[in-house]
Amino acid sequence: MADERGHVSAMDDFAVHQAPELLTTVATTDPNFFERFYFNLFSHSDDLFMIVGLGQYPNRGLMDAYAIAVRHGVQHSLRSSVVFDGDRQSTRVGPLEVEILAGTRIVRVRADAHAGSPIEFDLTWRADIAPYLEQRTHAMAGPRTTDDGQRFVQTGRWEGSLRLGDELFPITPARFWGARDRSWGLRRLADSVPLVPFGRTSFTSFFTWAPMQFEDYTVLYASFEDAKGVPERRSSHLVGRLPSEEVSDLGATDHQLMFVPGSRRLAGGTISFAAPHPDVEIEALTRLCLDKGSGYGQSEAWQHGAYVGDSVVECSSTPQVELFPTSRIDACLCRFRRGDDVGYGVFDTTIVGDHVKYPLETAAPGAAGS
């Protein structure tokens, strides 16, 4: 039942309250509050790579979701948006749905058939590692908090079925791996309330994030830096595969990355760690333009948290050569070599403007990320 005091949901029957409020009410009235799910799926080659996400925005009264996949140089997308009734258990957005079967262990992700959609799947993800809680993010512009979020990361394996275009793929855990993250808090979203422009107290112009999944462990690496290469935060940990929950700090890290000539698209490189931990060599396999068809970045009219109407679904299939010139978020599927061990995973790279190691002169005018 709902009235001016709020909406009583099924979740209110569980002993999970954190304040004398209903669970449809979040602790802040900031319109940029979000809850997000992110998943990636890939084979051990360049033949199939997909990213799926879903966002819930209680103070905006909407949810949105997307699935983007690449096959033979064509990027396919399915995205949807619905008006949100406040039920925090609701994680279905049109044809796309995320279902938690066992918290932090088993998740079902679906994209039902939809007219004109190039993507359809029914997939179950099972965790390889326990949830790894990343450092809390925080950023301000003058007196206003613009980012304040929590996120945990896991790697795992997929099982189920997937249709991409006219092709059907049996998804088996031996061949199809992938990471997920789960985040919530404040993040600058579409149509954020305009304020007097203040200088930011910090500015990340270089962002790399890579869950590197090996057979028996995962290396979790991230680096957030300014244009001079000064890290706001860097982290590198080795997490054992379940049932082990051992976490080892790999110490100080550094990166020597290579890019496709005239662009900011990753071509390979090396991530180094403190001795005696071996370096990781990076081999690029294929990529997705994450800010095309998903809502990330500022280049799309339909961004995360944007109201576009109730029950809106959009689909597209676009050659990636048409997306590269204006894409600024490179999600690159890579093969990783760490000593004798071979792993796979997504290496996300975003470079905004110049960077001391990777200057703009190396990127041609109009190249991705320039």
Structural write-up:
- The strands form three sheets. Strands 3, 4, 5, 6, 7, 8, 9, 10, 11, 12, 13, 14, 15 and 23 form a 14-stranded antiparallel sheet that branches. A nine-stranded antiparallel sheet has the order 19-18-17-16-25-24-22-21-20, with no helix packed on it. A two-stranded antiparallel sheet has the order 1-2.
- It has a single domain, classed as Beta Barrel (AttH-like fold).
- The C terminus is likely disordered.
- It has no helices and 25 strands.
- With 370 residues, it is mainly β.
- Strand 8 and strand 9 form a beta hairpin.
- 38% of the residues are buried.
- It starts with a strand and ends in a 19-residue tail after the last strand.
Furnish the topology, listing elements before pairings.
Layout: E1 2-3, E2 6-7, E3 33-42, E4 49-57, E5 62-71, E6 74-83, E7 92-93, E8 96-102, E9 106-111, E10 119-127, E11 132-133, E12 137-141, E13 144-164, E14 167-171, E15 177-186, E16 206-213, E17 217-225, E18 231-240, E19 247-249, E20 254-259, E21 266-272, E22 280-289, E23 312-319, E24 330-338, E25 341-351
Antiparallel strand pairs: 1-2, 3-4, 3-15, 4-5, 5-6, 6-23, 7-8, 8-9, 9-10, 10-13, 11-13, 12-13, 13-14, 13-15, 16-17, 16-25, 17-18, 18-19, 20-21, 21-22, 22-24, 24-25
Q: Name the shape in a single word.
A: globular
Average residue pLDDT: 90
Low-confidence parts: 364-370
Return the CATH architecture: Beta Barrel
Helix content: under 10%
- The radius of gyration computed from the alpha-carbon positions, rounded to a whole number of angstroms, is 20 Å
Helix and strand composition category: mainly beta
The termini sit apart by 52 Å
- The total count of helices amounts to 0
